Automatic annotation (TrEMBL):
Gene3D superfamilies recorded: NAD(P)-binding Rossmann-like Domain
GO molecular function, one term: oxidoreductase activity
This protein's name: Short-chain dehydrogenase
Species classification: Bacteria, Bacillati, Actinomycetota, Actinomycetes, Micrococcales
TM region(s), chain numbering: none
Keywords, comma-separated and alphabetical: Oxidoreductase
Cited InterPro entries: KR_dom (IPR057326), NAD(P)-bd_dom_sf (IPR036291), Sc_DH/Rdtase_CS (IPR020904), SDR_fam (IPR002347)
C-alpha cells in the first residue's frame, strides 16, 4: 500500500518508534493520527506535522479505542494503515514475575493490538484495502533469562498477526509484523518492572535509532510482506549489516 495520501493511525506515538513512524509517514505524504496516553506530547508533535491530529488514547480501554477510530473517521473519512506500536517491557525471572505485571503487559502488548485491529477492520473491509503492522521485538529470537513475560506477549502477537493475515487473504488487507532490534527509545525508562536488570543486560549494546525502525515499518506497509526484522544475523535475524532486508 502506498504511504502517500493514506490515513495512518500510529499508537504509542508520543516518543521513540511511534513518533519516528509518524514523522516518516507524514514526510511521505500521509495524514497521521497520533495516539498515546501522553496527550501533551502527541499534540506537540501533531503541531509539527502537516494535517496530523492528536488523540489521547489508552489502547487498553476499548471505549477510548472506539473514540480514537471515530476521531480518525471524522477528521479524514477513512483509515488505511494501522501501526500497532504501543507496548511496554517487563524484566523478571519466571519465579519472580508479578502476575499483576504479567497481566498488565499482556493487556497492552497483546490484547490492545487485537482491540485496535477489531476496531479498524470493518472500515478497511468496506474499502477493500488496508495495511496493519504490529510491532514485536527482537527478544523473541532468543531465550534470555528474565525476558519470559515480555517475550511471551510478543511471540503471541506475532502468531496473532500471522493468523490474522491468513484469515484476511483476498480481502485487500495485509497484516504484517515488524521486529526491531535494540532501539534507542524510552523503552527502558518506562519498563513495567525490572528496569535495573534490563539496563544491566543491555549495557554496551549497539542500539538502532528509532528512525531506522520507522523506515522499515513504512517499507513493510508498502511491500505488504508478512514480516521484516532488523535483528542481526548473529542473533538469528536477516539483517547482515547496512540496510534492512
Amino acid at each position: 500500500m502506498k504511504i502517500e495520501g493514506s490515513v495512518v493511525i500510529v499508537t504509542g506515538a508520543s516518543s521513540g518508534i511511534g513518533a519516528a513512524t509518524a514523522r516518516a509517514a507524514s514526510a511521505a505524504g500521509a495524514r497521521v493520527v497520533l495516539a498515546a496516553r501522553r496527550e501533551d506530547r502527541v499534540r506537540e508533535l501533531a503541531g509539527q506535522l502537516e494535517g496530523a491530529i492528536a488523540v489521547r488514547c489508552d489502547v487498553t480501554d476499548v471505549l477510548q479505542v472506539t473514540a480514537l477510530v471515530q476521531a480518525a473517521i471524522e477528521a479524514f473519512g477513512r483509515i488505511d494503515i494501522l501501526v500497532n506500536n504501543a507496548g511496554q517491557g517487563l524484566q523478571a525471572e519466571m519465579e519472580a514475575i508479578s502476575l499483576d505485571d504479567f497481566r498488565g503487559v499482556l493487556e497492552l502488548n497483546l490484547v490492545a493490538p487485537l482491540a485496535m485491529m477489531q476496531a479498524v477492520l470493518p472500515i478497511m473491509r468496506r474499502r477493500g484495502a488496508g495495511a496493519i503492522v504490529n510491532v514485536s521485538s527482537g527478544t523473541t529470537f532468543a531465550d534470555v533469562p528474565g525476558t519470559g513475560g515480555y517475550v511471551a506477549s510478543k511471540i503471541a502477537l506475532e502468531r496473532l498477526s500471522a493468523i490474522a493475515r491468513n484469515e484476511l487473504e483476498g480481502s485487500g488487507i495485509t497484516v504484517s509484523t515488524m521486529i526491531p532490534f535494540a532501539t534507542r527509545t524510552e523503552f527502558l525508562s518506562s519498563i513495567r518492572a525490572g528496569r535495573a536488570d534490563a539496563e544491566a543486560m543491555t549495557a554496551g549494546a549497539a542500539f538502532d535509532e528509532p528512525e531506522r525502525v520507522a523506515e522499515a515499518i513504512l517499507e513493510l506497509v508498502e511491500s505488504g510482506e508478512p514480516q521484516l526484522d532488523l535483528v542481526p544475523a548473529a542473533y538469528g535475524g536477516t539483517n547482515r549489516g547496512g540496510e534492512p532486508r
